[in-house]
Amino acid sequence: MMKLAMTLILFLIVFSSCGKQKSTLLIESVKPLTTTEIPQDTFAKTREILQHFNAQEEEESQISLKDLGNLQTNEGLIKVLPFMDPKSGSKFFLNIKNKKIFGYQDYGILKEPDFQISLRDNGQTLHAPVFYQHIQSAKLNSTTLPLLGLRIALDPGHMGDKEWDRPTGKYIHDDSGNILSEGYINFIVAQLLKNNLENLGAEVLVTRNNLHPVSKLPARTFPLIKFARTELQESTLKPWFLSLLNNASSREMLYDSFEKSARLRSLFSESRRSDYFILRADLDARIDLINRFNPDITLIIHFDTADRLDDPQSLNPYVIQATKGFVVGSYGANEFSSRNQRKFFIRHLLDSYSWQTSLDLSRYLITEIKNKLGVKLASSAGPESIEVEPGIFSRNLYVPSRLSPSAVAYIECLFYNEPKEFYRILNLTDTMAINGHTYPYSNRLKQVANTLRDGILNFVRK
Ligand SMILES: [Zn+2]
After folding, report:
1. Distance 312 CA to ligand 1 centre (A)
2. I need a surface site. Which of 42, 82, 323, 438 has the fewest CB within 10 A?
3. Domain membership flag for residue 366
């Protein structure tokens, strides 16, 4: 009886696993610092350490943020800030005075300027960004080509090749040896959806037209050093970095303690190769493709699993089928380490059009999935996210946080380790051909693609 109870607990303790695009590679939960805990020389010492390890000086933020002037109001800020920054980490580098936001490079000290951006008065006219104008114009389109004039980017998450199943962990098997790779399912849905959207007049980019990674870097041999240095820049507010920084009593000790640190050395070690490739290089390649395409709408397609603790890759009969979407936000206390990370945060905080339109698009998509596929809206999405409205959560995911302003939805369509769903998706009755390769797929994935098409249509029309 005891054993049965334990097994049940194991089955029931599940956690949503798909959001492994989390922007930090090592997730650390820390309490935000208070100003009194930050010694005055922290910024100077941080700079010295970054220089010592040849981390390149970061670009000026002001140039890339200049377009954000007069977009956000004070009231808009108050509304969005709890979802963007629930731990209030931004108060250590931002100051709001006289309808202006002042950003600082020296976290917690606020003396070394970084950028300044004007907020908008309530009565002041607002010029809608181009992507928003395109979406508005499309409302006047004919019913035969309702998406004419719109540019839509689709990003099927992960890779679909069997060789990537183990490194990414994004696959599920049953007891008979049937395997479904999430990267394959995402790819099929994206390709079917592409055809759907093109038939309705849209110009569509899919980031991946095969089952390989999007990055062209040689996965086994690319040099790690550039990634390690960026990782170091993004670690400066992590407890291990701050503790080394503040415990050294001289310059010599400072360099010495960092050089000997196991945490620092691990950033530069081969053990990080797979993470740097999967969670950085490959995602950077997608971001670059999407930003160069300059879309009005972006849809990042994923399927989720609720993992069994005893075997995360197996079917889980206790999963309650649900769908959910993510918008940018829920920055962790140490996710403001680099100037670059803060720049992306500010961009989403101040670009009210992009954030609100992304929320609207996500709502249309998950509502359509709920109604057409008969599933619930997820009631939670893990500890690193907070609910913005039913089924939609804010989270600092790597790709959406780095995309240029547009309507962006990151959808976890369904749980594919729920047994019934697994076998529906596995029932491969159709095929499609892309660049000479044949890909089998199920009617279920066609249903998902049609549902996403209808969600986009509803969003554009209403
Ligand atoms: Zn995924």
Report:
1. 14
2. 438
3. yes
362 Cα–ligand 1 center, Å: 16
Mean per-residue pLDDT, 140-148: 97
Q: Tell me how far the alpha carbon of residue 104 lies from the centroid of ligand 1, in angstroms.
A: 35
CA of 17 to the centre of ligand 1 (A): 8
Distance 182 CA to ligand 1 centre (A): 6
Looking at residue 277, the DSSP 8-state letter turns out to be I
Reported as a single tens digit per residue, the pLDDT across 382-440 is: 889 999 999 999 999 999 999 999 999 999 999 999 999 999 999 999 999 999 999 99
Partnered with residue 392 across adjacent β-strands are 325, 389
pLDDT digits (tens, 9 = 90+) for 107-134: 888 999 999 999 998 877 788 899 999 9
Cα 102 to Cα 96: distance, rounded to the nearest angstrom: 6
**DSSP H helical ranges for 294-382:** 339-350, 352-373
Spacing, Cα 180 to ligand 1 middle (Å): 13
Q: What is the value of pTM for the model shown? A: 0.92
Domain residue limits at 241 = 32-461
Asked whether residue 7 is assigned to any structural domain, the reply reads no
CA of 397 to the centre of ligand 1 (A): 11
Q: How far is C-alpha 342 from the chain's CA centre?
A: 15
**152 vs 204: CA distance, rounded Å:** 5
Q: Domain for residue 15, yes or no?
A: no
- For residues 206 and 190, give the distance between their C-alpha atoms in angstroms, rounded to a whole number: 7
256 belongs to a structural domain: yes
- How far does residue 20's CA lie from ligand 1's centre (Å)? 7
CATH number where 211 lies: 3.40.630.40
CB 49 within 8 A of CB 258: yes
Terminal C-alpha separation, the chain: 55
CA of 302 to the centre of ligand 1 (A): 4
- pLDDT-derived band of residue 16, with 50, 70 and 90 as boundaries? low
CA 19 – ligand 1 centroid, Å: 6
